[in-house]
Amino acid sequence: MRKHWLGLLVAGIAAFALAQISWAQITEAQQDQWIGIESHIGNITGHGPAAKEDYRRYCVGCHGELGDGNGENAQWLDPKPRDFTTAVFKCRSTPTGTLPTDEDLYDTIARGLDRSNMPPWNTFTRDERANLVAWIKHFSPRWQTEKPGTPITVPNEPDVTPERIQAGRDVFERVQCWKCHGVTGKANGPSASTLTDDLNRPIAAYNFTEGARLKCGETDRDLYKIFMTGLDGTPMPSFADNIKPDEAWDLVFYLRSLQPQPSKAREIAKTLHLKPINPNAQGGTTESTPQQQSAPQQQTNQPEQQQQTSPQKEENNPKQRP
């Protein structure tokens, strides 16, 4: 019996290894078989072959001919370009582990990704963007066998109140956001320097106090979606099973109070004299003392923020991953 189970285990490991090898050896000939896939954004239908030249001119330098993120510019980029063959994307409206919608990819192309080499490609027409979405989809076999996830429901945004901001601080501590983002949101939590992406490459936590745009948008709804869908391929998980929708909104408002941009949440937090959480306090959340606030905190190496400008359609303009 023991040999039987051992044999099954070895067979399973071998099958998994072969699957990984097969995945890694996707060829251009295989991708050509999937070239007919379309994208659908509203009343626009995107056709992959129509985007071939745009991709080759503006995208291939980073994402590569096969869409595997191994373009000639990739070796100098941090973070690295998205590998389209895995079809794993950070910015989605769909649950963690599922494919994004065509609209998700379409929006990412237009918006770009802050703190990366992926600029906002708002120079493309709507039809050109839709065609690029279809071209991106033809790189991965997942689009042949899986459907995009069902977008999550984002409830109406409630009013910002002192009670909600204080409740958000409690959620921030309870789900341990501070371990990566730090007790004041400066991305200097105890786990920050150990973070890696799904390919074991170092990755930085988001620093709320810098005032930079969020990776996947800039509205409160965008921040809510990040909590509830996660950023696949990174250490940022989905909290859909850990917090309720109301608690997610509370967390949105508390995190807004940490950002330097003027906001109602920040003004309310000032009137509350709200102090950072103290994870080491006995009996749950308590306000830290001035001495605790001034205690040295572990620092993480933040990648230097690159200033992006709206790109012109130039041959060597680098771009980076959704």
General description of the model:
This protein has 322 residues and is mainly alpha-helical. It has two domains: 116 residues, Cytochrome Bc1 Complex, Chain D, domain 2 (Orthogonal Bundle), CATH 1.10.760; 132 residues, Cytochrome c-like domain (Cytochrome Bc1 Complex, Chain D, domain 2, Orthogonal Bundle). It contains 13 helices and two strands; from the N terminus they run ααββααααααααααα. A two-stranded antiparallel sheet has the order 1-2. The N terminus and C terminus are likely disordered.
Mind telling me the CATH class of the largest domain?
Mainly Alpha
Fourth CATH level, the homologous superfamily of the largest domain:
Cytochrome c-like domain
Based on CA atoms alone, the radius of gyration comes out at: 22 Å
* Mean of all residue-level pLDDT scores: 84
| Overall helicity | 25-40%
Counted up, domains total 2
What is the topology?
Blueprint: H1 2-24, H2 28-33, E1 38-41, E2 44-47, H3 52-58, H4 60-63, H5 102-111, H6 126-137, H7 142-145, H8 162-174, H9 178-181, H10 220-229, H11 245-258, H12 264-272, H13 290-293
Antiparallel strand pairs: 1-2
Helix pairs in contact: 5-6, 8-11, 10-11, 11-12
Which labels suit this protein?
Cytochrome Bc1 Complex, Chain D, domain 2, single chain, 2 domains, mainly alpha, two-stranded antiparallel ribbon, 322 residues, disordered N terminus
